[in-house]
Amino acid sequence: MIARLAGQATDTSAAAVPFYLRAPDAKAQLPLVKHRESTLSIEPAGVAYANVLAAIHTPCFEDAWDSAAMAALLATPGTIALLATQENTGEQHPCGFVLLRAAADEMEILTLAVLPQARRRGVARALMQAVRRYAGQAGTRKIFIEYAEDNQAAHALYESVGYASDGVRPNYYRNSDGTASNAITASLCLSEAEPLPLSGNP
Length: 202
Fold this sequence. Notes:
The structure is a single chain. The chain contains 4 helices and 8 strands. By secondary structure, it is α+β, with helices and mostly antiparallel strands. The chain has a domain of about 130 residues: 3-Layer(aba) Sandwich (Aminopeptidase). Helix 1 packs across helix 2. The protein is globular, with a radius of gyration of 16 Å.
């Protein structure tokens, strides 16, 4: 599995996705993140949200995961999504998510996606901060991530939130034009990470 940032989307002019999110039955388990004049909410999401996650993933990647793939992943023990929604006119609009898989005291980020129209608003950074909080609550020691070496947006984001490169996997990704890209493996040791900000913009 790979961790991919939605900055690699092939259609950056995609129209807004016309779907909404009903308020979940469970109370929010992660703090709301304030950004500018709107409110971004990030909460855990399970198999019931497979269709929502697939709808976000589709405009972000050429080889996007459909709802069946999302459901299969979320049904795997230790796997969960953190779903970001933006409040607008009283409705919660899904705008991004990160998919995680935990095993023992380690956690892997499988994929990260933000809708094209929701980018450059701090959503991806807020999701990465939510990963830190969720991992800390789960007793995680180390978080791992993997991304394409030529994905500069992903590199800048992950480096800015404390992830350090562990190595390179040559020609790991196959691109649609037949070329190959190296994969960067990176990780964050929670015991050595800088404390998260208590408040403020993501």
